[in-house]
Amino acid sequence: MTLNKEASQGETSSDLSLLKDKLLFPLRDKVFSVDPAKIAIKRVFQGTKEYKDAIDIVNYSYNSFYGNNGEVVDVARDSLDGLNTTINLAATQEFNGQSIVLTTLRFVHGSNLDVFELFEMEGEKKWPHEQGISNKKPGEIGKFSFHPIFEKKNPKYFSEEKTNIKKVITRNLYENGMKQMKEAGVEIPYSIFTKHVLNFIESTGISPFLKVENAKQKQSESTDLVRKKFSKYWNPDKIGEYQPELFIAPWVLRPVRK
Q: Which CATH number characterizes residue 203's domain?
């Protein structure tokens, strides 16, 4: 995760509760049921409403888990947005004439990746994609976020059934994105996850994620900004479920774990 140095650019609420209200507003006073049979996986592009909704969901999710004092820091938009090497995928469902973004996941391929801004290898060690006779093409998976209707603390919308639906959506997003990554020639797909997120993703059968040995959090202006805004999330002096680690993601899925 890298941050915009400027404050939110006017498209995202600066208050977490207002951002949540904005996301739930299309569902107000209506009965909405997530239906796996009606969910579409699609690539969303800058300038579209679905893209803006996906941005709001990423910002809500990250700030809700890791942020401070109810402030919304823009983590969703960065220099990779708009590049043809960036694939923003969303799981959507039509409701009351609108396309509701339920989940989002971003795939990026090529040498311009978040992981290289946030991690480095210790000493003279090489990155996995640099090992061997010739370099392998890297990619990354990130910005994994759910709409607040999936929150357990939101009893109006949450049910245990939604936990299983979340797993179905996650698998479908991942399979779609990895297919596009393979078509782009990616050989080593990196991902950065905290323990609690990784536990959920691996429960969907997307496993195993292989930890990249000898990788350490990078000290830079970019990571210093992340630590300042998200002290619970990005702090190498702390140990816990919110501390991010670097992994190589799997290509082949296993059965869903119950």
A: 3.40.630.30
